UniProtKB/TrEMBL annotation:
PANTHER family: EARLY NODULIN-93, EARLY NODULIN-LIKE PROTEIN. This is Early nodulin-93-like. Coiled coil: none annotated. The keyword Transmembrane helix applies. Pfam families: ENOD93. InterPro entries: Enod93. The chain crosses the membrane at residues 47-69, 75-94. The lineage of its organism: Eukaryota, Viridiplantae, Streptophyta, Embryophyta, Tracheophyta.
Amino acid sequence: MGIPSELRDMFISNNKNSFLIASPAEKRKILRTKQCTSEGVRAGFKAASIACVASAVPTLAAVRMIPWAKANLNYTAQALIISAASIAAYFITADKTILECARRNAQLEDSLRHSQ
């Protein structure tokens, strides 16, 4: 099942050295896309770091002070609570940042198209 290794290697090498040359406008678009993605990753990492601390402090404090939490939240549950908050913050923030950047790029593209 699958693609034989010779065909796979040929396909991969042909994609890297494509006979089509990207226009300068396409290259700018690709560069802006990469910048949006890296901006989203940075913003997501910052949000995840803040969410990690913001969820770890009350979770760990509750496990030491509240009898119900002490009895029912083992180490795995604590880790799941903290990581769920961090993961959610990362993806929500990264998604919002990338969409905002894409909107800015679309407006820039429209303004460049209308000015010419």
